[in-house]
Amino acid sequence: MGVVNVTPDSFSDGGLWFDETTAVQHGLKLVQEGADLVDVGGESTRPGAARVPLEEELARVVPVIRALDAEGVTVSVDTMRAEVAEAAVEAGAKLVNDVSGGLADPDMPRVVAATGVPYVVMHWRGHSHDMYSRAVYADVVTEVREELSKRVDLVLAEGVTEEQIVLDPGLGFAKNAEHNWTLLAGIPKLAELGFPLLIGASRKRFLGRLLADPDGTPRPFSRSDDATLAVTALAAEAGAWCVRVHEVGPNADAVRVAAAWKRAGANT
Fold first, then answer.
1. Known catalytic residue: 94?
2. Which of 60, 81, 151, 244 is catalytic?
3. Contact 198, 240 (CB under 8 A)
4. Residue of 81, 203, 204, 205 with catalytic role
5. Which residues contact 144 (CB under 8 A, 6 or more apart)?
């Protein structure tokens, strides 16, 4: 899944693809590099980000989705709003990626159920402005798994089918670096819930902090792509269904390496 942030303030590439033409061109480039999905979002969820008005989010994403769909691109929409999800699917989106798992907008599960498209339910405890205050766990894998399971039950009750559901442990969302690493190591346990897993580690702060300079200065987002590749390969080998990344080409190669590794292991 390649990322197209149609935003001025996303944490690693805000403003680079903010106008429609540039965003569409970037989406097409990601497909050429090997993206199976292009994830279009119009609202930053970086730590501390403020929400944008509904009409602004619609104006950002719908024209880009429509244009990419016209080019035959399989598009997902990254949104927490049911109205945006509905408009995006009407414009051609084939998947709804909701970082709140239906908690930010109670209408989201019902709307997604009506569309019939796949639905990414992410683990989430609150909006960006205060999510780190909620990063408290005794056993992060067990608690994330339990909270995701409850979300699944609730969206199923709203009419979403099991076949539509994809789960995301929400790396960085109400999680500190230790939580993120523990969740990545716990992918097999999360997969026991029985749903495909989406992993979004690309350029996140915990990678920059791992690779910090001797004086403790975190590595910039743009220089953590090699670490992202390592996470991609390990996540793919552990059974992740999809990885959400900013640089598609090298990550697609990492997935191929992981697949070859798994095939070889199955034959020994």
1. no
2. 244
3. yes
4. 204
5. 123, 137, 169, 170, 183, 190
**Per-residue pLDDT tens over the stretch 80-106:** 999 999 999 999 999 999 999 999 999
Q: What pLDDT, in 10s, does the model give residues 115-169?
A: 999 999 999 998 766 777 889 999 999 999 999 999 999 999 999 999 999 999 9
Element containing residue 120 per DSSP (H, E) = strand 119-122
Model-level pTM greater than 0.85? Answer: yes
Q: Is 204 labeled as catalytic in the residue annotation?
A: yes
Q: Which helix (H) or strand (E) holds 165?
A: strand 165-168
Question: What b/e string do you get for 159-191 counting C-beta neighbours within 10 Å, with b at 16 or more?
Answer: ebeeebbbbbbbbbbbbbbebbbbbbebbeebb
Helix, strand or coil, per DSSP, at residue 167 = strand
Task: Quickly count: other Cβ atoms within 10 Å of residue 226's Cβ.
Answer: 12
